[in-house]
């Protein structure tokens, strides 16, 4: 039996976390020749995930540059993948979500008439500038994809409204839930020693990430102003801010929050540290997309520091609340969770709508069906 060659392409830490269990599932299948190409759109944070999941890469484009631009990233991805595709000639590539690597990978494959599978397809805010550039990266990738792996029924419905053929869409759940089956441990000791000295039992620890491009400038300033007041007004609160390495974010955060009592400013942590920090924390505040899926899986309320989200299922389920970057709104909603037990219980006990840990199996089953390697019936995630 001739194997089909499937190349997984990703370039950032969040993509790597979500693609790792899929790579592992591809490697198990006898009819698939699995190849991995990383663009290294993010370098250090990507390498942490590759090491943890023991993923060997076949190609590393290493495109990251200081003060890189969207145009530069896109052009380097296109040029790098053109050479890789010429050498490997994959039958299908898999890209994930909404990064510039994702769109560049799909476009490069289209130019070579290579099939494209889009993992985490169909998320939409319906505003092309929020999140920027992710909304259009995801939508344009959807226009180029041959198979669409939607995490939820809502995502599938978005794709159907855009004219995608239903037979090309599979509702799989989100692969990040698959990844968390491997990373979250009951008795976990942090490698970052500062985290081991936090009293997670007696303190209400708030885990924070905020780095989205649309929040640069006034948004990050407002978030930091709000965080400073939250920790001052709540003596049992303790903040752990995982600060993005980009100076546009880092400089603002350290200006406002460095040396404040009960505030820990740490660099981005590797996957297992982040997931286990989330598990031990009281709540999460973030502008990240992925954390909106991960935290509810662990029963942690999430305040989203954005005005819109492409993940409305969690908002509808009650696990996530949009608070934007208005100082007073952030403080009000955080204080509710910190001081109102009923409000906290309502959010922390809502059902996570994002997966059951079997998304990767469904995706690879669908790929095998597409290429005629199997006729196995796929039970979609509901």
Automatic annotation (TrEMBL):
Domain of life: Bacteria
Gene3D superfamilies with a match to the protein in the record: Glycogen Phosphorylase B
Record GO terms (molecular function): UDP-N-acetylglucosamine 2-epimerase activity
Keyword set, alphabetical order: Isomerase
Enzyme type, top EC level: isomerase
UDP-N-acetylglucosamine 2-epimerase domain sequence ranges: 24-368
Catalytic activity, EC: 5.1.3.14
Family: Belongs to the UDP-N-acetylglucosamine 2-epimerase family.
NCBIfam families, per database record: wecB (TIGR00236)
Protein name: UDP-N-acetylglucosamine 2-epimerase (non-hydrolyzing)
Species of provenance: Clostridium paridis
